[in-house]
Design goal:
single chain; 146 residues; alpha+beta; Rieske Iron-sulfur Protein; 2 domains; seven-stranded antiparallel β-sheet; four-stranded antiparallel β-sheet; 38% strand
């Protein structure tokens, strides 16, 4: 192996390691919940679901996942701020694959399309934004109209 090839390979390996570690760090931010109510296609979720106890401390999550029985795919609820939540249907607008949810993005494992935490396309091949649901909240709960 020549010096240039060695340096190039080493740099690519370092960059890849960094990217994979950042990707894996984002993976642990999601959790499925089953503790919600569903009355007349209006889901109610406790805001406390966005917190998990970890080593004696409480950690805030960026999103939570749930799978209502009447939907084919799960939905993800992103906490954008203390006063703003966004609920997105996890079906890719390109060819209908189920998306993977991360802290600030949704990624399609079928063709690599990416969407931000508002459901907007950030990388093709998808051209259309994702389906979202009207989401409101009060002091204790988040409400999602399916």
């Amino acid at each position: 192996m020549q010096r240039r090839e060695f340096i190039k390979t080493t740099c690519l390996t370092c960059a890849g390691t960094f990217a994979v570690s950042a990707f894996l760090a984002a993976c642990k931010s999601s959790k499925y919940i089953t503790n919600y109510t569903n009355e007349n296609k209006k889901l109610s979720i406790k805001k406390s679901e966005f917190f998990v106890a970890e080593k004696g401390n409480q950690r805030s999550l960026k999103n939570i996942l749930l799978k209502p029985a009447e939907l084919q795919f799960p939905i993800v609820v992103y906490k954008l701020s203390d006063t703003e939540y966004k609920t997105i249907y996890m079906q890719c607008s390109h060819q209908g694959c189920e998306l993977n949810a991360f802290e600030t993005a949704l990624v399609c494992p079928c063709h690599g399309a990416e969407f931000n935490n508002r459901g907007q396309v950030t990388q093709g091949p998808a051209e259309n934004d994702l389906k979202t649901f009207v989401t409101t909240h009060d002091n204790e709960n988040i409400y999602i109209q399916l």
